Amino acid sequence: MSVYVQYAPYQLKNGDWNSRREEFADNAINVLADYAPNLKDLIVARQVITPLDMEQTYGMSGGHIHHGEQTLDQFFTFRPLIGWAQYRTPIDGLFLCGAGTHPGGGLTGLPGANAAREITRDFKEKKV
């Protein structure tokens, strides 16, 4: 079973992720155990990946799996930033298609499908 916690802060008020990762995982499991009472007895091993791990291991700035918050100021033409909407970058022929593009990482595959649509559109326009 994989458990994805929607939000975990990059910087903790007290301590750091290396010293508090297990505590965080215990809290998440305790919440889930309220709905699945035997859950704790079924866990034989676990891996806790913190926002710090996400940044250091996978290069996700700030440890954010969606490459930015899913907020109104980071949707549509603002994602990933103003001037780079519609999956295009200032470099001709370079397109973006990951979680940092609209609609974000919550809809698996949709940023890639949207980018492919724009690439196809550009290809057709240049062929004519």
What's this, in brief?
The protein has helices at residues 17-33, 39-42, 51-58, 110-127. The protein has 128 residues and is mainly alpha-helical.
Task: Write up this protein.
There is one protein chain. This protein has 128 residues and is mainly α. The protein has 2 domains: 17-63, no CATH class; 72-127, no CATH class. 37% of the residues lie in helices and 0% in strands. The longest helix has 18 residues, at 110-127.
Features:
single chain, 2 domains, 4 helices, 128 residues, 37% helix, mainly alpha, elongated
**What is the percentage of strand-forming residues?**
under 5%
Number of structural units classed as domains:
2
Order of helices and strands: HHHH
Rg (C-alpha, Å): 19 Å
Helix content percent band: 25-40%
Number of strands: 0
- Tell me the quaternary state: single chain
Helices and strands in order:
Layout: H1 17-33, H2 39-42, H3 51-58, H4 110-127
